[in-house]
Specification:
The complex is a heterodimer of chains A (493) and B (284). Helices cover 44% and strands 12% of the residues of chain A. Chain A is α/β, with parallel strands linked by helices. In chain A, the strands form 3 sheets. In chain A, strands 1, 2, 3, 4, 7 and 13 form a 6-stranded mixed beta sheet that branches. In chain A, strand 5 and strand 6 form a beta hairpin. With 284 residues, chain B is an all-alpha fold. Chain B is 74% helix and 0% strand. The chains are: A alpha/beta (493), B mainly alpha (284). Chains A and B meet through helix 1, helix 4, helix 5 and helix 15 of A and helix 1, helix 2, helix 6, helix 9 and helix 12 of B.
Chain lengths: 493, 284
């Protein structure tokens, strides 16, 4: 009897598992926690304007948010806030939280960090079954529909109504981003959007005006051609395979990404990007790549940046959230060949279009006690406060959610010091205000490997890697997305 | 003929050398990258860092600001609990299945084995519920609930796989040994500790290593079932590497620190490891 003949195999497996051990979870040394989001710029919010955004107060029962419960509670009320801020962002959040805790004696906030938004969501969804939940939760904007469907959150609109909170100072597009069927569900906190990073040195060397970066996709193509022709870099633009950008481009074209008013008039049942605009975008990407003007750097979080100092490209697109870090990095004199510039994201120009709001927002959790919900709302208010937002934006590079925050210290000084930080903010305000720029809301918004974004990423990757024709790629993205949507809607009922 | 043997040996060593380089290379790059200034890492791959230029700051940042030291400590505690638990439960269960007669033995064993076919994800929420509820128990609640070392280890203290592995080793012991031990007046416990366990040591060591790597590399469970206070190193690494385009070296330094225990274990238990690998081959 030799029962252990397979033991070596087992050990081999164990060893392989061990070998990866040091490394597994770290491979994305990423820059931007925000790059997976989208959202919009657009409409109006509380005071009633754009297609989806207003009249919240009228539609939601203020008693859903027991803001008065704090008065009679035993103080301080202890609450937990689950967030996904890391590094400098986390440090600033800790500082703000300490400041909040020290400023009053009613509420004590404890922070609990997750390494990233998806992990924060994993913890949250796991907690739904055990009630190990936070009192306040920071969710990436793609979480919106899922959180609504979880029935575990207090609509922000209820708190706004109950607390008689004035949202008029908040950028309307940001509020509308979190508004579905007229109800604002989350309190905005950290906002970013994608911008163009470009190398002024390369532009000059190629005979281009370094102060006039491309604004449309046609111009990106022309610029890329000029750069490649001049030999300054091997490609014009390095492109990270990310579904977020196609969402942004559709929004800039003023078109909805999913049906039923981007999922804001009623639950989305299918994508809407399988049209001429969508095809034009996919075709542009495919042609750029085929003609050697665009280098696809895969889904990695770093490679598209790295291409610039290595003269593989002179431009790239990614979240403004990384701007501070990227500039700092390229500014250390290590790269004589790089003088980085930032500009609005180039794309289809439409009077009805604009970039989407990316980033995350705060959700009050309804499983908590009344006093805790009230305390959570109080902290959410603090984080959205004028002064807090000025400090937060100055320290992190996120866009302040209030225009007034841009006129006070320390953000005023910070923007003078680094004017590029203002690009994303200006871009956000420049957009139109409608359902298209509000951005898609759907349960299976997905990420790499899952849901709608997974389908889009796979389709774009197939276009680059296998030469899949743009029509087929678009069809594949549409089909995959619709399957995910159908599947989700079936389960949610 | 000896010429041919020489050939063979040379070929074998050449193959092994190439394989060894392949396995060591990523580890080597991990160390190199942890010592380079971050902005250098953004340029093309660097394969060498001269000792004079090495930046050790990444390590202190990872250890102090990244809390890798605390996370390592937590991982050690949780992993130790899991390894000890698995070895003890596996040995006891295996002994029963190998040497004792009791009703429904075969059926029970099959039931035991079927647990190997249930992926952890399937019972994830049930386990989470369980430890969360255990947190409310009197006395033990503080040790086995949500966000405790006990809670992190509890679902993994016994496995069908472990019982199976050790049972097979026990079954391969000659029946005569059991009889001889009985004649010497050994009861079950003494036979188990003095005869069965020492003879089955390669299998038990293999189980221990298997349990160790499984426990050490867990990610989803510790992510969800704990918070800062009991965060394990794998989850901690996630924090260090996120949002760190400017501190890639710190992420790599954290990786090096996190893998040190694995290296130590490998070196210390090399003998057992090799013995475990060859145990089945020499004698079944």
């Amino acid at each position: 009897m030799r029962p252990m003949r397979w033991l070596p195999l087992v050990l081999a497996v164990a060893l392989v598992a061990g070998g990866c051990g040091g490394g597994d979870d770290d491979d994305d040394t990423s820059t931007d926690d925000t790059s997976t989001d989208d959202t919009s710029t657009d409409d109006t919010s509380t005071d009633g304007t754009a297609a989806s955004g207003d009249d919240d107060a009228a539609e939601v029962d203020p008693s859903l948010c027991p803001v008065d419960a704090l008065t009679d509670a035993d103080k301080p009320v202890e609450i937990e806030y689950w967030h996904a801020m890391t590094r400098a962002n986390e440090e600033e959040l800790i500082r703000l939280t300490d400041e909040f805790n020290a400023s009053q004696s009613d509420v004590r906030v404890t922070l609990s960090a997750s390494p990233s938004y998806p992990e924060n969501l994993t913890r949250y969804t796991a907690g739904l079954s055990t009630d190990e939940l936070p009192d306040l939760y920071q969710g990436e904007e793609t979480n919106l529909q899922l959180l609504i469907d979880s029935q575990s959150i207090v609509p922000a609109a209820a708190c706004i109504a109950a607390a008689d909170y004035d949202t008029s100072g908040i950028i309307e597009g940001v509020l509308t981003r979190y508004t579905v069927e007229g109800i604002q569900y989350a309190m905005p906190f950290n906002v970013s959007n994608p911008i163009l990073y470009y190398n002024k040195t390369a532009f000059t060397a190629a005979g281009l005006d370094p102060e006039a970066p491309p604004t449309t996709l046609e111009e990106v193509r022309e610029t890329s051609q000029a750069i490649v022709d001049s030999g300054v870099a091997t490609h014009g633009i390095s492109f990270k395979t990310d579904a977020w950008f196609t969402e942004q481009w559709m929004a800039k074209a003023g078109e909805e990404y999913v049906n039923n008013g981007n999922g804001r008039d009623a639950r989305a049942t299918a994508v809407a990007f399988d049209n001429e605009t969508g095809l034009a975008l996919y075709t542009w990407l495919s042609d750029m790549e085929k003609d050697g003007l665009l280098v696809s750097t895969g889904t990695g979080d770093l490679e598209h940046y790295v291409a610039i100092p290595n003269n593989e490209s002179a431009m790239t697109i990614d979240s403004s959230a990384a701007l501070g870090t990227i500039f700092q990095l390229f500014d250390q004199g290590q790269y004589a060949n790089v003088d980085l510039g930032a500009a609005p994201m180039p794309g289809p120009a439409s009077a009805d279009g604009g970039v989407l709001v990316g980033g995350a927002s705060n959700y009050v959790v309804n499983r908590s006690s009344d006093a805790e919900q009230a305390a959570a709302w109080k902290f959410a208010e603090f984080l959205a406060d004028e002064q807090t937002q000025s400090e937060w934006a100055a320290a992190t590079g996120y866009i302040p959610i209030r225009e007034a925050s841009t006129t006070i210290s320390p953000l005023v000084e910070r923007w003078v010091e680094q004017p590029e930080l203002k690009v994303a903010y200006d871009q956000l305000l420049a957009g139109a205000d409608n359902l298209a720029t509000a951005g898609p809301v759907l349960g299976p918004a997905g990420a790499r490997g899952e849901g709608m974004r997974g389908a889009v990423i796979d389709a774009i990757a197939a276009m680059f890697a296998e030469g899949l024709p743009p029509e087929d790629a678009l069809a594949q993205a549409t089909e995959g997305s619709n399957e995910a949507i159908e599947d989700y809607n079936d389960r949610v009922g | 003929m000896s010429g041919r043997r020489w050939y063979r040996t040379a070929g074998r060593y050449a193959t092994l050398t190439v394989l060894a380089l392949m396995f060591v290379f990523p580890l080597y790059m991990m160390v190199v990258n942890s010592l380079l200034p971050p902005e250098q890492l953004l340029k093309k791959a660097n394969f060498w860092v001269s000792p004079g230029d090495a930046l050790w700051g990444g390590y202190s940042t990872a250890w102090n600001d990244g809390h890798i030291g605390e996370y390592l400590g937590n991982s050690v505690v949780v992993t130790t609990l899991i390894v000890a638990g698995q070895v003890v439960t596996a040995v006891l269960a295996a002994y029963a299945f190998a040497f004792l007669d009791f009703p429904l033995k075969r059926t029970l064993f099959v039931v035991f084995l079927t647990t190997m076919m249930i992926p952890f994800e399937v019972v994830f929420f049930v386990n989470l519920d369980t430890i969360t509820d255990f947190g409310d128990l009197p006395l033990v609640g503080d040790y086995v609930g949500f966000d405790t070392y006990g809670g992190l280890a509890l679902p993994f203290l016994a496995t069908g796989f472990g019982a199976f592995l050790v049972r097979q080793a026990f079954l391969s012991l000659p029946r005569d040994l059991r009889d001889a031990a009985a004649l010497d007046g050994y009861g079950h416990f003494r036979f188990l500790t003095r005869v069965a366990i020492p003879l089955a040591r390669p299998s038990i060591a293999a189980l221990g290593l298997f349990a160790f790597f499984g426990a050490w590399n867990q990610y989803l469970w510790p992510l969800v079932a704990s918070t800062e206070d009991h965060r394990t190193v794998q989850v901690g690494l996630g924090f260090v590497s996120e949002g760190s385009v400017d501190q890639v070296n710190v992420a790599f330094a954290a990786l090096v620190l996190a893998s040190i225990p694995l290296f130590v274990l490998l070196i210390v238990f090399q003998k057992q490891l090799v013995r475990g690998l060859t145990a089945g081959a020499v004698k079944g």
